[in-house]
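$ ./design --mode recover --in tokens.txt
reading tokens...
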């Protein structure tokens, strides 16, 4: 039988930190298995729960079993699951890694609401290697008629920290109607701006780049252009930590919630 266990269950400190999307997860000595983060970045998509093959690996507990309503058999055994799921722009399991059995695996986001419950809106079949880290993204723009979005998986080759004055940062492009973009980081202290890797196409990830720890204004630009495409101000990169900055949204949308944005999530 396949085993699917979240690393959040291994350390109570990590479990408490799960509510902080940019909290640090200790992954320096993982147990055997592949480790996967899940993101719902499909513009306009419904909330989802994430699955590995037929096994649900992320879900949200309902408040129905909070005291004093926690005495029922259901609450004391399986618990009650909320239909909220993981909304657009959010990550499953507080953006912590989930431990999965290695091998060929179908990762999917399935609708969590009562209407169309369990319907897969995006899935990818991929080989997960033992001891490696990955991120799975529901991406692109949700088709409400077909009830489908796009999806992709990238490996997270977590760099070894050798200089604890530095942070490691990479860029992922989850915007289906974008051109290749380069992420630039401008120090709010010195005003110096540097690229965090090279140009990244849709469904791809750049290499991790070292930046001096500090606060940065982030911008993306297309090749050969000096015009900022997506911007985010005052992002903190902490020394010794590893981060993925992901572009999500719709490049032509006039709806505020759907406009392009930069997500910053700590890998370590």
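writing sequence...
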């Amino acid at each position: 039988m396949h085993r699917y266990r979240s690393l959040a269950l291994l350390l109570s400190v990590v479990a408490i930190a799960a509510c902080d999307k940019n909290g640090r997860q200790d992954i320096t000595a993982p147990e055997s298995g592949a480790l996967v983060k899940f993101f719902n970045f499909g513009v306009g998509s419904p909330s989802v729960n994430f699955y590995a093959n037929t096994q649900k690996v992320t879900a949200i507990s309902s408040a129905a079993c909070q005291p004093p309503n926690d005495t029922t058999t259901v609450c004391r055994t399986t618990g009650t699951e909320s239909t909220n799921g993981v909304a657009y722009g959010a990550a499953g399991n507080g953006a912590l890694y989930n431990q999965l059995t290695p091998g060929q695996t179908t990762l999917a986001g399935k609708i969590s609401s009562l209407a169309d419950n369990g319907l897969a809106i995006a899935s990818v079949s991929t080989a997960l290697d033992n001891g490696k880290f990955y991120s799975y993204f529901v991406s692109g723009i949700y088709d409400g008629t077909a009830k489908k979005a796009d999806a992709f998986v990238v490996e997270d080759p977590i760099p070894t920290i050798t200089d604890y004055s530095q942070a490691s940062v990479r860029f992922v492009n989850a915007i289906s109607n974008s051109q290749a973009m380069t992420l630039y980081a401008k120090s709010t202290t010195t005003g110096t701006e540097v690229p965090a890797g090279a140009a990244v196409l849709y469904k791809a990830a750049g290499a991790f780049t070292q930046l001096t720890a500090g606060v940065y204004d982030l911008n993306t630009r297309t090749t050969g252009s000096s015009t900022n495409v997506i911007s985010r101000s005052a992002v903190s990169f902490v020394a010794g930590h590893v981060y993925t900055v992901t572009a999500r949204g719709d490049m032509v949308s006039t709806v505020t919630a759907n406009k392009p944005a930069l997500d910053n999530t700590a890998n370590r």
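exit 0
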